[in-house]
Amino acid sequence: MSLNTQILIAAILGVAFGFLLNLFPQTSFFNASLYGLGIISSVFIGLLKMLLIPLIFSSIVVGVANLQAGGQLSRTWKITLACCVTTTTLALILGLACAHIFEVGKGVDVVMFQDAMNQHQTPDTLTPASFFTNFIQNTLINPFKAFAEGNVLAVVVFALFIGAALVKGGEKFRSVRKLSQQFFDIMMLMIGWVMKLAPLGIFALLAKLISTEDISVLSRLAEFAAVVTGTTIFHGAVVLPALLWIFGKMNPITFFKGTRAALITAFATSSSSATMPLSMKCAQENLGVRPQTAGFVIPLGTQLNMDGTALYEAAAALFIANLMGLDLSLGQQLVVCATAMIASLGAPGIPSAGMVTMIMVLQSVGLPAEAIAILLPIDRLLDTVRTVVNVQGDMMISVVVDRHTKDLEQPALQHKMHV
Ligand code: ASP
After folding, report:
1. Which residues lie closer than 8 Å to 82 by C-beta, 6 or more apart?
2. Ligand 1: which atom is nearest the Cα of residue 379?
3. Which residue, by CA, sits nearest to atom 3 of ligand 1?
4. How far, in Å, from the CA of 314 to the mean position of ligand 1?
5. Candidate of 205, 386, 394, 395 to mutate for ligand 1, largest count of ligand atoms within 8 Å of Cβ
6. How far does the centroid of ligand 1 lie from the alpha carbon of residue 407, in Å?
């Protein structure tokens, strides 16, 4: 049985087992199972996180060096950026449009959330300006600190720098380039090993999620949850595949078949960073994206391209405004879009990161930050689907970019990086 199929079966069994556990709450069977599931999921996530930083670093260094040597860096960079901005903008428009069409939050009584909001600590004001300053301060730091703290963005920036320096140095740094390439190959080999654990890890993660989340709170926010989830799925199942078809000339079915392992892992982990090693492997091995493109685009996309998060934040801001009985003007909605775009750029790919940056979006149009207390109870569940779309977007962009840079490749460089 292929790994893809094993992962799919494991996901279904994990959800089923989670519901089964819910039938025996607080029993010793429940507690013992939860303990076992916790151990298995920690091992799986731990191994992915262990590989993440060295993988991001080596793949970007090698990607920049080889793209530059092949004369494709500038076009790759431009197309990646254009794709990120286009898909995120479409996601934002979709998020706002659906929130308007379904008028989410209108007619819901805000009083029933008053307790939660009162108990919520008001965070410090987070304006786009202060967010941006923080963003820079957290990015240009000592690389060893960045490695140790797992600061993905700072590692990306440092790797881009080193990649550029290696290119500039040319022959002088040939051995370092070779070393980086070999280090990257070792990382990919190790990821292959970790993937063997994926079915078990995904089973454990999903069973744990279903058995520990309070699904009943969903019903209070059912309409909002359904609209956001439905719209996110629409973006992932219709908008992105259409773009892939037009600009990447790839059949969406081929895409979904090839990326199933990464998409299910994104759903189970709610973390695009933890899923990144798998996204890279799926893009290279199943979609035929050249390693230098995947190695450059996917780590960047993991940090910067989050369609699901942007869509969610725009829709959620409108939901809160409706709950409060406020009508946001067109100008205010544009501010929401711009802030949600910055927020999705800056949000790290970890569970519920979008909730933190959501504060900034709310405050940008004067909505109370405490209102996130309303969204928090269902966030872990909604995070699953938006992370899938975040990860899908990264892999999709790698296909489009690869197609549009292939013609630049110099023959001598072909097959230089095989994993
Ligand atoms: N969990 C998301 C991700 O890792 C980020 C978010 O909270 O929206 O992509």
Report:
1. none
2. 7
3. 349
4. 14
5. 386
6. 34
Geometric angle at alpha carbon 365, from 363 and 366, rounded to 5°: 60
Closest Cα to atom 6, ligand 1: which residue? 354
Q: In the numeric block, which tokens belong to residue 85?
A: 């901005």
* Contact residues of ligand 1, CB 6 A cut-off: 270-272, 306, 309, 347, 349-354, 383, 386-387, 390
Structure tokens belonging to residue 307: 């369609």
pTM over 0.90: no
Q: What is the pLDDT along the chain (419 residues), one digit of tens a residue?
A: 788 889 899 999 999 999 999 888 888 988 999 999 999 999 999 998 899 899 989 988 988 888 877 777 888 889 999 999 999 999 999 999 998 898 887 777 666 666 666 666 655 566 777 777 877 888 899 999 999 988 888 898 899 899 888 888 888 988 998 999 999 999 989 988 998 999 999 999 999 988 887 776 677 788 889 999 999 999 999 999 999 999 999 999 999 999 999 999 999 999 999 999 999 999 999 999 998 899 999 999 998 899 999 999 999 999 998 888 888 888 889 999 999 998 888 788 889 888 888 888 888 888 888 888 888 888 888 999 999 999 999 999 999 999 998 876 655 444 444 43
Counting from 1 in the atom list of ligand 1, the atom nearest the Cα of 344 is 8
Count of domains for the chain:
1
Tokens of 388: 């899938």
Locate tokens 């599931």: which residue? Answer: 37
Identify the residue whose tokens are 């989830």.
229
CA of residue 406 to ligand 1 center, whole Å:
31
Question: Could you tell me the two tokens for 292?
Answer: 């230098």
Q: Which atom of ligand 1 is nearest to the CA of 352?
A: 7
Report how far residue 82's alpha carbon sits from residue 85's, in angstroms, rounded to the nearest whole number. 5
CATH of the domain at 132: 1.10.3860.10
Distance 200 CA to ligand 1 centre (A): 22
User: What domain range is 163 assigned to?
Assistant: 3-418
Q: CB–CB of 131/350 below 8 Å?
A: no
